[in-house]
Amino acid sequence: DIDHPDEYVRNTTARAFAVVASALGVHSVLPFLKAVCQSKKSWEARHTGIKIIQQIAILMGCAVLAHLKSLVDIIRHGLDDEQSKVRCITGLALGALAEAAFP
């Protein structure tokens, strides 16, 4: 549940999606991630989408380098989100991407 009210459920969903992205290839899930991270429907969906990108960075490590620009472009708007939780997870996701890109 991408927009579930319980953060634990959303975190578990993000981990599962990161595994799927790793298996299918990040390029195949980029359109989905872009749509979720820019959701106007709920801040929970945006939070989960950005959390998915954080989990991809943690799971795949330097393999995210090929997709780094796309992933950063997808989540950068989260730094200006009206919800503080979205802003916070965006910062954490950018940190995870930076750590994965240059350990």
E-strand count: 0
State the low-pLDDT regions, or none. Answer: none
Whole-number mean pLDDT? 97
For the termini, the CA-CA separation is: 32 Å
Largest sheet, in brief, is: none
Shape: globular
Name the beta content range.
under 5%
Into which percent range does the helicity of residues fall? over 70%
Global structural class: mainly alpha
Rg computed from alpha carbons, rounded to a whole number of angstroms: 12 Å
SSE order: HHHHH
How many DSSP helices?
5
In words, what does this structure look like?
The structure is a single chain. The protein has about 100 residues and is mainly α. The chain is about 70% helix and about 0% strand. It has helices spanning about 5-25, 25-35, 45-60, 70-75, 85-100. The N and C termini lie far apart (about 30 Å). The model has no long low-confidence stretch (mean pLDDT about 95).
Features:
mainly alpha; 5 helices
Write the layout of secondary structure elements.
Blueprint: H1 7-24, H2 26-37, H3 43-60, H4 68-75, H5 84-101
Helix pairs in contact: 1-2, 1-3, 2-3, 2-4, 3-5
Quick recap:
With 103 residues, this protein is an all-alpha fold. Helix content is 72%, strand content 0%. Helix 1 (7-24) packs antiparallel against helix 2 (26-37), helix 2 packs parallel to helix 4 and helix 3 runs parallel beside helix 5.
